[in-house]
Amino acid sequence: MYVLVLFVPLLSAIVSGLFGRKIGTRGSGILTSSCIVISTIISGCIFYETTINSSITYIKLWRWFDSELLTTYFGLQFDSLTATMLIVITGVSALVHIYSTGYMAGDPHIPRFMSYLSLFTFLMIVLVTSDNFVQLFIGWEGVGLCSYLLINFWLTRIKANKAAIKAMLVNRVGDLGLVLAMLMILKQFGALEFSTLYSIAPSGVEVICLLLFLGAVGKSAQLGLHTWLPDAMEGPTPVSALIHAATMVTAGVFLIIRSGPLFENSPLALTVVTIVGALTAFFAATVGVVQNDLKKVIAYSTCSQLGYMIMICGVSNYSTSLFHLMNHAFFKALLFLSAGSVIHAVSDEQDMRKMGGLIKSIPLTYTMILIGSLSLMGFPYLTGFYSKDLILELMYDKYYIAFAYWLGSFSALLTAFYSIRLIYLTFVTNTNSKKEALFAVHESKGNITFTLLLLAFGSIFVGYLAKEITISNIIPPVISNSTKGIPLLFSMFGAISAFIIYSMSSAGFFYFWSSSRAGPNHPLYGSPIHGVYTFLNSAWQFNYIINHYIVSNIFKFGHLITYRIIDRGLLEVIGPRGVSRILINITQNVSNLQSGLVFNYVLIMLVFTTLFISGLYL
Amino acid sequence: MYYEYLTVGIILFILGILGIVLNRSNLIIMLMSIELMLLAISVLFLINSMAIDNLMGQVFTIMILTVAAAESAIGLAILVAYYRIRGTIAIRSLNLLRG
């Protein structure tokens, strides 16, 4: 059963990928979905055995690297962390599979799509079930590869190709950190198994932890290496749901949680983790406020929530981080899939400025997004509340890093603001869409709404149901009521202010905020507010800075220095071309000695005979 | 007396060499210079044969004379053949094989 949870998604990926032509569109959809559902059921059983009955399971499959210094088994480890991750991954992945059969209907390459989705799930399962760093790295690279394949699923679009390459390359920066961390662990401790590593109470691991964190930064889209995440929206919506909700971006958080015993020995790394996480949460929340693309808003919200998870890891509350990861997977998958449903309904329009007034035509999707958003905002008694509030309280408890607490709280306000803004612009305000698009709006098919309903149940109840199991070891800090209320008050304030601002702007107040008037004719064009808006809308100009100061310089360096000066210049002159020219010159000179004139030959003969006789052998 | 004879022989030989090296016009002069060199060597052999009282030098001289006669015969024959083809025996025109 334990091996089966890996094997079934692999089987479905292989069958759907290699024999997709034989089993057809419907066949591949049914096959892969049912395989992942089976995997979900199995992981439920694993959860029961390993977490509820608290019996950790280790399975050694076979020897993999077998040398004197390094012996690595291909082994599986099922503890409560793995089991929780498995539930999240397979559960959300199964729903995404079912959703995709409806959402992608009519696409000519469905078997390939389903195969990639299953492969993604399989590699993610490999990542979370491994009992050593090397095997974890297979999954780590594998999900990067699958994200490339999936983002670039519509491979004829140049933007999709660029986004996929960017995702792959930016991830690779982080992967480098993970590889270096692995090498350093091997050098310092001589083992890569988690169980061995954590039983020897490692010390002196500052550099290792920072490198591991670099890996997590790349995969979990923290500040600095986050630029791939919004661009990854070029893929189909179910892919975004899979990448941003349950699987890929959580891998970085998972790595930190898994390496928790290492991080515990490195206060510096923990502080860095907290600060970067808090900054990411704040940064992504501010950017999310002004995005106009429906999916990008949710993407930045993912980035922001990942910041929360990383931040709380930095104060050693790993189980809270895991809890938030699980809750986030449910409501973020719900948000993404509902957004997909909206996009589907309005004839593939993604710009929120061209939507509006959908509340009457697609009330079910509206309800779903509302549930997801309220959960995301940490509305009391919904899933997000249990983890998000706890995170902020625990942050408040660590007085020495109050800065992160206030950044986190302010991000909560902004989160509420952009969630309500999304709902308002999409559903409530007067419509801006075309007449024919508006008339064609319809609720999606059964297999789409079914998955949304399931995820909505998850978004409402998971936090309450799982909190005893996941965070029973956390002692909630004793804080005053007014402090406890701060995140909630902030969220409510953000939500209400968003509602007021946008309803007033649609009613005519703040008319300069109405986004339909953007452009040089806008009354605020060129003013500081416009500058701030542009700054936030372009994500703090990170792409600009990275492109102009790093990427283009590296490109120029690559072309000018390494290619034209070193490769085609220096090495060419020293190497083949120079040597051949010198040799040709010498031989030319030597052969010019044979002038064809007999008396010259005689002279040369005499000279050399004389030298020979006089003993001056050359 | 021995050294004077020796000097004469060597000077003759050097004259023959210079005749070849400095001569840039005529193949016949070159052949004559070669003959001169062979004669100079013969003279040196004879002188040394007399000086050390050994007949081997005179034997060699006769051999050299034979070889010189044969060589000049063949050389002149080549020269004639060459003249038939090219119509000239100037050494400057003998530069078809250049490196």
Rounded mean pLDDT score of chain A: 87
C-alpha-based Rg of chain B, rounded: 16 Å
Derived from helix and strand composition plus strand pairing, the structural class of chain A reads mainly alpha
| Computed CA radius of gyration of chain A, to the nearest angstrom | 30 Å
Strand order of the largest sheet of chain A: 1-2
CATH class of chain B: Mainly Alpha
Largest interface, with Cβ-Cβ < 8 Å? A-B, 13 and 15 residues
Report the total helices of chain A: 25
As a percent range, the share of helical residues of chain A equals: over 70%
- Outline of chain B: elongated
Number of domains of chain B: 1
Distance between the termini of chain A: 85 Å
Strand pairing plus helix content of chain B: what structural class?
mainly alpha
CATH architecture of chain B: Orthogonal Bundle
| N-to-C series of helices and strands of chain A | HHEEHHHHHHHHHHHHHHHHHHHHHHH
- What's the mean pLDDT score of chain B? 89
Helix count of chain B?
3
- What proportion of the residues of chain A form beta strands (DSSP E)? under 5%
Largest sheet of chain B: none
End-to-end Cα distance of chain B, whole Å, is: 48 Å
Protein name (chain B): NADH-ubiquinone oxidoreductase chain 4L
Subcellular location (chain B): Mitochondrion membrane
Transmembrane segments (chain B): 6-22, 27-47, 59-83
Organism (chain B): Plenaster craigi
